[in-house]
């Protein structure tokens, strides 16, 4: 089973560590859609009982990354094109409004953090790093201003969409386009143009969705 195991027998953060290891493996595609999460194997890999494993899987299920089937166990959720469209459309709506609300309140610390994240995204060569840098960039601009409920909803959507962002950036040569759009969003924020920043953010997310769906549709088309 593909995840980063650790010996947690002497730690108090078993649930958190197992949760993060499994979430990362799912997001990066190391645990593929439909893969079964066998509690006994995970517990042995982390040198713990099944109790923290069960709790970690329950948290993953709350995020929509795992589904439990009666009498069969837990499996990595399989998302179809309709799921992808829904997740990205919701992200576009929520993140656009979040940044519209945040721009008038952005300070030099947040803007500096966003510039650094944008540069790190530009410089990254490993597809696994692109997702983290992309998330850091957007979070720097709007997350400090998010209300707790909005933050929780958006975190859930990001956990779902991250599974596909890596594929979209890598398979569709999307890094260059995303890098350019990051610079445009950042420039609008620096200029204090909240409406433009919101519009660019929505276009950015919808563009990533369209690129990914076009690729998936092409992959699923029957050979002629």
Task: Describe the secondary structure blueprint for this structure.
Layout: H1 14-27, E1 36-37, H2 39-46, H3 50-62, E2 66-69, E3 73-76, H4 81-102, H5 108-123, H6 127-142, H7 148-171, H8 174-190, H9 194-220
Antiparallel strand pairs: 1-3, 2-3
What does this protein structure show overall?
This protein has 224 residues and is mainly alpha-helical. The protein has two domains: 14-76, Winged helix-like DNA-binding domain superfamily/Winged helix DNA-binding domain (Arc Repressor Mutant, subunit A); 81-220, Up-down Bundle (Four Helix Bundle (Hemerythrin (Met), subunit A)), CATH 1.20.120.530. The protein is 70% helix and 4% strand. The chain has a three-stranded antiparallel sheet with strand order 1-3-2. The radius of gyration is 19 Å and the shape is globular. Keywords: DNA-binding, Transcription, Transcription regulation. GO terms for molecular function: DNA binding; DNA-binding transcription factor activity. This is DNA-binding transcriptional regulator, GntR family.
């Amino acid at each position: 089973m593909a995840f980063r195991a650790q010996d947690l027998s002497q730690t108090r953060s078993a649930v958190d560590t197992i949760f993060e290891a499994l979430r990362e493996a799912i997001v990066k595609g190391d645990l593929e859609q439909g893969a079964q999460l066998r509690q006994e194997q995970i517990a042995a890999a982390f040198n713990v009982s099944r109790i923290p494993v069960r709790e970690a899987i329950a948290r993953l299920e709350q995020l929509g990354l795992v589904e439990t089937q009666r009498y069969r166990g837990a499996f990595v959720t399989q998302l179809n094109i309709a799921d992808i469209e829904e997740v990205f459309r919701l992200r576009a709506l929520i993140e656009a409004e979040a940044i519209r609300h945040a721009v008038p309140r952005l300070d030099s610390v947040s803007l500096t953090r966003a510039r650094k994240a944008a540069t790190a995204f530009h410089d990254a060569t490993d597809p696994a790093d692109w997702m983290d840098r992309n998330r850091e960039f957007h979070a720097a601009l709007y997350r400090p201003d998010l209300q707790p409920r909005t933050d929780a909803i958006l975190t859930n959507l990001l956990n779902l969409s991250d599974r596909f962002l890596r594929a979209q950036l890598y398979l569709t040569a999307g890094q260059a386009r995303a890098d350019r759009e990051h610079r445009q969003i950042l420039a609008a924020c620096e200029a204090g143009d909240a409406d433009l920043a919101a519009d660019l953010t929505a276009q950015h997310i919808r563009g990533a969705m369209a690129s990914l769906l076009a690729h998936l549709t092409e992959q699923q088309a029957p050979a002629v």
